[in-house]
């Protein structure tokens, strides 16, 4: 396995780059890719920056240029369910682009020419990641929705939940990585620590969380994952 690890922001991946043994850095397309050994696993860590295009580009480059065989996205997300609390972890079983709508040409959410609206994560990677996360906090598994919007209004998250009743979390990158990995045949998984409730308090809660717990969780989960 050669594992690509993507996060949007530095806070979501803090400590991991420092933990890489024999690191070597490569700049490409405005991003820094750091390769090395992470607890015996051959790994490449990179920050995608925020949004679906940024994440899609990063995932494609990881595969095509850095030859990773598996991808994990780790970061924070807003809660999409009343039972999913700040500090819990959501491990995706499938991901959807909630802002994709080519109707009436294709059904809402469907990605043209894939016949899919939900992209399933790799079962083995997801299982191992959920096990690693379960040693740290409460873990939920299910649907994550991604879009090029920070969800920071109660009315926004309520509207999304009405359309996607099984929604567990919202973020801005995971489903883009999912589509790229599906199209390139790369097993992938997405893990998100809940930073906020995607409501009117989301922006303040997000800023607070990202400065504190976010990085420690990501580090601990990836460490457990690699050592498993
Ligand atoms: N990432 C963390 N919180 C988020 C939110 N409320 N909306 C979108 N992405 C997020």
Automatic annotation (TrEMBL):
<dbReference type="GO" id="GO:0008782">
    <property type="term" value="F:adenosylhomocysteine nucleosidase activity"/>
</dbReference>
<dbReference type="InterPro" id="IPR035994">
    <property type="entry name" value="Nucleoside_phosphorylase_sf"/>
</dbReference>
<dbReference type="GO" id="GO:0008930">
    <property type="term" value="F:methylthioadenosine nucleosidase activity"/>
</dbReference>
<dbReference type="Pfam" id="PF01048">
    <property type="entry name" value="PNP_UDP_1"/>
</dbReference>
<dbReference type="GO" id="GO:0019284">
    <property type="term" value="P:L-methionine salvage from S-adenosylmethionine"/>
</dbReference>
<keyword id="KW-0326">Glycosidase</keyword>
<dbReference type="InterPro" id="IPR010049">
    <property type="entry name" value="MTA_SAH_Nsdase"/>
</dbReference>
<comment type="pathway">
    <text>Amino-acid biosynthesis; L-methionine biosynthesis via salvage pathway; S-methyl-5-thio-alpha-D-ribose 1-phosphate from S-methyl-5'-thioadenosine (hydrolase route): step 1/2.</text>
</comment>
<keyword id="KW-0486">Methionine biosynthesis</keyword>
<dbReference type="InterPro" id="IPR000845">
    <property type="entry name" value="Nucleoside_phosphorylase_d"/>
</dbReference>
<protein>
    <recommendedName>
        <fullName>adenosylhomocysteine nucleosidase</fullName>
        <ecNumber>3.2.2.9</ecNumber>
    </recommendedName>
</protein>
<feature type="domain" description="Nucleoside phosphorylase">
    <location>
        <begin position="2"/>
        <end position="205"/>
    </location>
</feature>
<dbReference type="GO" id="GO:0005829">
    <property type="term" value="C:cytosol"/>
</dbReference>
<dbReference type="GO" id="GO:0019509">
    <property type="term" value="P:L-methionine salvage from methylthioadenosine"/>
</dbReference>
<keyword id="KW-0028">Amino-acid biosynthesis</keyword>
<keyword id="KW-0378">Hydrolase</keyword>
<dbReference type="GO" id="GO:0009164">
    <property type="term" value="P:nucleoside catabolic process"/>
</dbReference>
């Amino acid at each position: 396995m050669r594992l690509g690890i993507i996060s949007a922001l530095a806070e979501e991946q803090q400590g991991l780059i420092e933990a890489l043994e024999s690191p070597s850095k490569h700049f490409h397309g405005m991003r820094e890719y750091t390769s090395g050994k992470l607890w015996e696993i051959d790994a490449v860590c990179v920050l995608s920056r925020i949004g679906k295009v940024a994440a899609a580009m990063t995932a494609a480059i990881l595969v095509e240029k850095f030859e990773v065989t598996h991808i994990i996205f780790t970061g924070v997300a807003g809660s999409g369910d009343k039972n999913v609390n700040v500090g819990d972890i959501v491990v995706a079983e499938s991901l959807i682009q909630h802002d994709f709508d080519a109707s009436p040409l294709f059904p809402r959410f469907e990605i043209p020419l894939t016949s899919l609206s939900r992209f399933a994560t790799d079962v083995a990677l997801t299982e191992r990641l959920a096990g690693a996360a379960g040693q740290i906090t409460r873990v939920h598994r299910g649907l994550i929705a991604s879009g090029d919007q920070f969800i920071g209004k109660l009315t926004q998250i309520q509207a999304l939940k009405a359309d996607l009743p099984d929604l567990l979390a919202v973020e801005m990158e995971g489903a883009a990585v999912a589509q790229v990995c599906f199209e390139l045949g790369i097993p992938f998984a997405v893990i998100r620590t809940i930073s906020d409730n995607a409501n009117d308090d989301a922006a303040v809660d997000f800023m607070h969380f990202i400065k504190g717990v976010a990085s420690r969780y990501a580090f601990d989960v990836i460490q457990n994952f690699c050592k498993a």
